[in-house]
Amino acid sequence: MLLTHSFVAAVTPGWYQYIFYAIQGGPYDHREEFVNEFRWNLESLGRSIGDKAVVVVPFQPDIPTVANEVGLKDWTYREREQVQRTPSLLVLTKHLAEFSPRSDPWLLLHFGEDRYSDGRGYLQLKKAFAEIAEAIAGPDAEPEQLYKVARSLARTRRDYQHVFEAKPGIWGISVDLVEVADILSSEIRARQKKLGHWPRRWNARR
Questions:
Q1: CATH at residue 34
Q2: Using one digit for the tens of pLDDT, what is the confidence trace for 73-99?
Q3: Mind listing the pLDDT tens digit for each residue in 169-199?
Q4: Residue 158's domain spans which residues?
Q5: Considering the domain boundaries, does residue 203 fall inside one?
Q6: Pairing of strands 18-23, 53-57
Q7: Domain for residue 201, yes or no?
Q8: Burial, 158: exposed, middle or buried (Cβ in 10 Å; 0-12, 13-18, 19+)?
Q9: Measured between alpha carbons, how far is residue 95 from residues 20, 51, 75, 106, 117 in Å?
């Protein structure tokens, strides 16, 4: 599901497995083409995940307010450095207003224009969003798989991935969206093969 809304009171807690909060930069931070691709991918993700999760996208005038709302959370210095990288998706299991990085798990999926701003990058992002959707709403989806894969990736890859432990059992994770989607895809294909399910083909065309 996709909601275009101010973040405040946009989501009823407890209804969804994941809540994806879209965090965007200012009007001059990214090229228009890249922003359009970003928003199209969010719409596609929202349609594909159905009622399993929700994507919350701020109205255009609310983008700075949203960035401030997220920034006011009790982040450490190193966590804040990651949160300020835009665009990204902050993935939570509760309403943003009730969330605290000191007591709740969180996942930040980043996909910077510096890495994915050309034709090949757009295809990588499109494929990654499709794989994320399948991992959440597909017939072979497993609960909390997205968090588990991201945590594993952050521990083994230190170049673009970061893991933060607020307290025992509570983790914050910042990972590259395309890389975590690749691992999700591999795990899903392996599970489909084991169960004898016919793998679905991803279509690169709109």
A1: 3.40.30
A2: 999 999 999 998 888 899 998 888 889
A3: 678 888 888 888 888 777 766 755 655 555 4
A4: 2-195
A5: no
A6: parallel
A7: no
A8: exposed
A9: 10, 16, 17, 12, 31
How much is the pTM? 0.81
Tally the domains of the chain. Answer: 1
Residue 63 lies in a domain: yes
DSSP 52-93: SEEEEE--GGGHHHHHHHHHTS---HHHHHHHTSSSEEEEES
Q: Which of 88-102, 149-163, 190-204 has the highest mean pLDDT?
A: 88-102
Q: Within a domain: residue 173? A: yes
- CB count within 10 Å of CB 143 equals 9
Beta bridge partners of 19: 54, 92
The helix-helix angle for 119-137 and 145-156 (nearest 10°) equals 130
